[in-house]
Amino acid sequence: MAALLCVIAGCNAQKKQQENMNDKKMLVVYFSHTGENYSVGNIKVGNTKIVADYISELTGADQFEVVTHKYDGMSYKAVCDMAQDEQAADMRPEFEGKIDDISQYDVIFIGTPIWWGTYPQVMFTFFDTYDLNGKKLIPFATHEGSGLGNTVSDLRKAYPKATVTGSFSIYGHDVRDGKSKVQKWIDGLNL
Ligand SMILES: Cc1cc2nc3c(=O)[nH]c(=O)nc-3n(C[C@H](O)[C@H](O)[C@H](O)COP(=O)(O)O)c2cc1C
Q1: Residue 24: pLDDT above 90?
Q2: Is 130 in contact with 97 (CB distance < 8 Å)?
Q3: What is the pTM of this model?
Q4: Alpha helices (H) along 24-138
Q5: Which residues are registered as beta bridge partners of 43?
Q6: Distance (Å) of CA 175 to CA 47, 67, 179
Q7: How many alpha carbons fall within 13 Å on the CB side of residue 6?
Q8: Nearest atom, ligand 1, residue 82 CA
Q9: Residues with a CB atom less than 6 Å from ligand 1
Q10: pLDDT of amino acid 41
Q11: 121-161: per-residue pLDDT in tens?
Q12: 25-188 belongs to which CATH class?
């Protein structure tokens, strides 16, 4: 009987989270690089995009992909070298597209691969372009050993008046089998 009540309570909690998710307008903003990758070969869909897609599937969140063609067709080493130079020079590479009415979103997931310990510089261009102060920001990262690196502190620096919470990281080589990990993380968020 206790077990049954527990199952019912669990269902109710899940239903409540689903209702809350339906109330709130959510967005996933992410950058993801395709092509030659450190540990998963030459990929057509980036690791971070795979996680972004899981999030949208599980929560109904809209998506905005931060797209630049700067690194198209380059070798892994060339991208690494260029990214290192961009970080040293604190560059702001351009990205394509824009978000219609950012004010409609209460909760924004911010996803990235870790590049040299933090965001690729193009994400800082995004942060300079959109004011996300006052919103709930949930950072996530794919990586090959650095975890979230400095992304959480850099996001807080970019948006001192946002609530940065609930961060999540996963190895890039784990994402293709990682949907249950993402599901567990989402279930634990107070959305
Ligand atoms: C330019 C560059 C720099 C990277 N720097 C790091 C790093 O500092 N720490 C780390 O754990 N992984 C690093 N990686 C590995 C990526 O974070 C990892 O492969 C990630 O899953 C790629 O995601 P994506 O396919 O969405 O671009 C780097 C990769 C690139 C291309």
Answers
A1: no
A2: no
A3: 0.91
A4: 47-59, 76-88, 121-129
A5: 35
A6: 6, 20, 7
A7: 3
A8: 1
A9: 32-33, 37-38, 46-49, 79-80, 83, 113-117, 142-146, 172
A10: 84
A11: 999 999 999 999 999 999 999 999 999 999 999 999 999 99
A12: alpha beta
Of ligand 1's listed atoms, the one at least distance from the Cα of 80 is 1
CB 26, CB 109: distance < 8 Å: yes
Mutate which of 29, 68, 86, 114 to test ligand 1's pocket (most atoms within 8 Å of Cβ)? Answer: 114
Residue 48 CB coordination number (10 Å): 25
Which tokens go with 162? 């946002």
User: Could you tell me which of 160, 168, 191 has the C-alpha nearest to residue 27?
Assistant: 191
Q: Where are the domains of the chain?
A: 25-188
Q: What does the block give as tokens for 135?
A: 């919103």
Give the residue ranges of DSSP H helices in 76-150.
76-88, 121-129
- Ligand 1: nearest atom to the Cα of 31: 26
**What's the 13 CA to ligand 1 centre distance in angstroms?**
36
**Residue 143: helix, strand or coil by DSSP?**
strand
**Which candidate, 63, 75, 89, places its Cα nearest to that of 37?**
75
